[in-house]
Amino acid sequence: MVAERIRPSYLRLMPGAMRREPARIRAMIDMPDEAVVHFLKRTAFDGIDPSAVETATTHISLLLLGGDLVLKLKRPVRLAYLDFSTPSLRLAACHRELTLNRRTAPQLYTGVLRITRTADGTLRLGEDGESGDEGELVDAVVAMRRFDQATLLDRQAEAGLLDAPLMDRLAATIATFHRSLPADADKAGAARMRRVLDLNEASFAATGLFAADERAALDRRMRSHLARLSPLLDRRAAAGCVRRGHGDLHLRNICRIEGEPVLFDCLEFSEDLGTTDVLHDLAFLLMDLWHRGLEAEANRLMNRYLDHTHDEAGLAAMPFFMALRASVRAHVAATAAADAAASEAAAFRTTARRYYDLALDLLRPRDAVLVAVGGLSGSGKSSVAAALAARIGPRPGARTLSSDRLRKHRFGVSPETRLPEEAYGADVTAAVYGDLGQASVGTLGCGHAVIADATFERPDERERIAAVARAAGVAFVGLWLDVPADTLLRRVGARRGDPSDATPDIVRRQLERGPGAVTWTVVPGEGTPAMVAQRARAAVEAALGRDPVSRLPDPAPS
């Protein structure tokens, strides 16, 4: 259902202002006219008894739900960050919500309806702008199609249904959306983030949950990161990376329609809050996944998004962006705890603490490293790279650079599209390895970790990728997956829809040539993916002399 839930994020972004003048603010918070609500229940839901129409309330909205229809009324509120106090303002807000959400969910947002009162006092409901809509404007509603709550991605996450193909399609959906947006003319980069930090500081102080030294510790770290990142953020803003995005992009605001991910319920009431760096927009979803313990899913989503956008230059800001999103969630939950009944307050306080701790953890320094995963076709390189990535380097883990995907990008085709044999000539392969090295240099230069995924069949290819790490001044780990020939042939023969175009004949030629002297750490590649990933992780830890990141749960068998 479109709205049988209360959005917990930006609905309380100004608790400090609200708490300083609670009587004045609360006096201005009201519900839609009961006569209008009863009128809508009677007239808008064909064939449904008015008593069967359900209602749901958020901080700024009232929703009516019946059959396959949802009507969303704006509550007549005036707050520091929005004003719905008059019918004309609510009508304009409905149109803005419709326009913004139709960018990503046109199949859900059907139109704006206006309620007018005729000269004899009769209420009338009609589409805004249709002929005969004369009369006094009383209110307006956004009309939406209802959908099954089980298709919300937070529910799908709880059910363990966020698989790799879904993450790949979601990344493509978000990347396509971001690319479609015009750049913001303001060009504000660091200044925009500074305003959010100022808002956070006031909001945390108003909650009463966090001690002054705790608030100061987080604020100090956030501002230290912002000071370091300010030149980058300003360059990104000047380059057009600040856009009017979704603004509230987390799992509860994404559903599946006919199996495909659909973004909906964007932050519609504040252009300032909704306009931000596209990676900050994405960071909300990455943080939400990480908070739920779905680290591998967060890393995969980031990597597939970057496969589409090639925006690695912004990776230096990603831990800060994710921490900023977590800190907003922390003070929102803390505010909810202060307002909740005693039976619910403890859960909100626990949630606030978890987000606070997550924000601090996201800001913890982590070294950039370069891990190369090599082996003949079918040895499981991409599976190992994916299993390691979330555990290595700054959050949300390493950028995985695959020679297979880079080759497909060079030819302008999707990863699953098979290339002709000439795309695998010696000159093309050398160019692909050049692309891999160049992309690694750029990402490491941002302070982010890299996992390079390629066969690295020849000694000179292995030496060149190691040289990239030396030039960047970062630690290097080379892993060679050793798998028996019959297993390689069986795996490659069973592949379908894979970025690799390797065939059993290609594997046989690789075996005939041999890899030469392998000086990298040899990892046995037989067994379940979880077993091989654990061996690879142990090899990385041994090579670095430490666990490259704080310990995470071992990958599940697959």
From TrEMBL:
<dbReference type="InterPro" id="IPR027417">
    <property type="entry name" value="P-loop_NTPase"/>
</dbReference>
<dbReference type="InterPro" id="IPR052732">
    <property type="entry name" value="Cell-binding_unc_protein"/>
</dbReference>
<dbReference type="Pfam" id="PF13671">
    <property type="entry name" value="AAA_33"/>
</dbReference>
<protein>
    <recommendedName>
        <fullName>Aminoglycoside phosphotransferase</fullName>
    </recommendedName>
</protein>
<dbReference type="InterPro" id="IPR011009">
    <property type="entry name" value="Kinase-like_dom_sf"/>
</dbReference>
